[in-house]
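Quick start: what a row looks like.
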Amino acid sequence: MSLCTLELENALRAEGKVRIAGVDEAGRGPLAGPVFAAAVYLPIGFEHSLLNDSKKLSALRRDAIYDELAANPDVIISSARSSVEEIDTLNILRATHLAMKRAVLSLELEPDIALIDGLEVRGFPFPQKAVVGGDGLSLSIAAASIVAKVERDRYMIEKAKKYPGYGFEKHKGYGTRQHMEALRSQGPCPLHRKTFAPVAQLVFDFAD
């Protein structure tokens, strides 16, 4: 059973907040690919016994829940990403925050407040409430974590066709043994984050 509830959302509604967006990201740690973020409105009284932090679910279960959310007309979803170039230029934290802002700004209706997984986002364009571990507490944040994770995984699977040999369809850009071996033999591709230490060293080596 999921530990996630609408308790945080209901407390905010009691304060007069109506549109409450759950916000989360996926892809801060990988060596390759964009960072994705999602913002989700769930309807009042929404329930889902399996919806939880995306990291605690199998890929098959994440995909199934994502499809359920996307098919539900009462669930409003927005997603966005920051590119590899933005990650290398801004740093991963700022790029992540930029993706979160883009996701919320793309919602059909402006939120009264955003429930954000983790710490507060500097310069966020709307009122926010940061919740450490929120993807395991709030159904709205958990839904956003599912959307961001599934959309990023699908993106990396698609990009694996353009950049074969790295195994992106398996590890999604994380620094697995297979990925590191491919990096050492093939060198970085345009999808790699050049400022991340393992890649930066290889960029230097292949430039020699």
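That is the whole record. The helical segments are 7-14, 59-71, 84-90, 92-105, 139-162, 168-171, 177-186, 197-207. The chain has a mean pLDDT of 94.
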